[in-house]
């Protein structure tokens, strides 16, 4: 798999440093294969007049189109359906990253071909799992008493809530950090509901007074966040395993400076609108899409690498590589109006995944996702070698010797640190230092 690291990273540059550096060679690079077919034509048409990163424009387009086509088109892994529903987090510096600009053209195009969807099926401001279910809820029925002469003689079944007939929902979060903050509350069900929504299973609340339920849903999500906010709110392996690995993370930046702004002439957008409309019409007739022989052979060659996994926070965040690539390849096939997932569709999906993998590594490389271990590593980076006594002091002596020994043993086993000796003028002291 490509990792897209360059000389800057080899020289010790960090993602935080990169956010202030505009040159594109310092960022993950999207391979040309990702700009396949109609998706590529849209990005190439828009890009000269947009300050957004082309990768960000592509991400918004893929997530949005994947939601508009609905739950019908899908690929299968045994008996599990994988529709074209994607979650994506676009990571970049505040307003200077032009993350919002990347949504402008995809939204405009889809407003032309799916105006009702654009008006009613895009929602911001996720606050709770119950709130999400409400926007895709099933109809609810109850009983109404039949009364005669002041007495109840029976009951009629009546519709209490008509529910929502269109189960497509695109959650657009310009401040994804606020969602992460809400999910940290013990009583907030949002994380659990989003996980189930990505899986495509029925959504439900266990609240007695509000038994909401939603079936056959098709939920997509795209959010914007800065690198610092992401690192602050996503620090533990269990959170990455349970939630973050359902996201595609894309580290982006402003691609160019256009003082006068820019708008693509309608005559250039018109053929894209026509082709996108045809894509949506064709998608209505599509069910299970399978790989052809050539794509199947390529999939077999790459599958072991995709599913191998690795320890730590990076491994946790990349833990659904196979499913993500499968959904992306399905989406590229739909954009191509193809009757099967072909090799170019798989190659395009892998190019997007490579970019996402490189982004995650830039953002989280070297972090284990265990707060105590990451705290010790950070101290060793900033202060240099530490004795065991100094490590105890680092944690304020609020952790037991067994806990600290476990952290040290983990870092030694993973070859993140090593022991050496320091001369003190008397007995040599054992110290722990980072492995170069």
Characterise the protein shown here.
By secondary structure, this protein is an alpha/beta fold. It has two domains: 7-140 and 162-364, 3-Layer(aba) Sandwich (Rossmann fold), CATH 3.40.50; 371-434, Arc Repressor Mutant, subunit A (Orthogonal Bundle). Helix content is 45%, strand content 17%. The strands form five sheets. The chain has a five-stranded parallel β-sheet with strand order 4-7-10-3-11, sandwiched between helices. Helix 3 (37-46) runs antiparallel to helix 12 (266-283), helix 4 (54-68) runs parallel beside helix 5 and helix 15 (321-335) crosses helix 16 (343-364). The longest helix has 22 residues, at 343-364. It is globular and about 95 Å long.
Category from helices, strands and their pairing: alpha/beta
Strand order of the largest sheet: 4-7-10-3-11
Number of DSSP helical runs: 19
Kindly state the number of beta strands.
14
CATH architecture of the largest domain: 3-Layer(aba) Sandwich
Sequence stretches where pLDDT stays below 50 over 5 or more residues: 1-25
Termini separation comes to 24 Å
CATH-defined topology of the largest domain? Rossmann fold
How would you sum up the major sheet?
5 strands, parallel
Amount of helix: 40-55%
Coarse shape: globular
Level-1 CATH class name of the largest domain: Alpha Beta
The oligomerization state is: single chain
Mean pLDDT over the full residue set: 85
Total of domains: 2
Provide the gyration radius in Å.
Answer: 25 Å
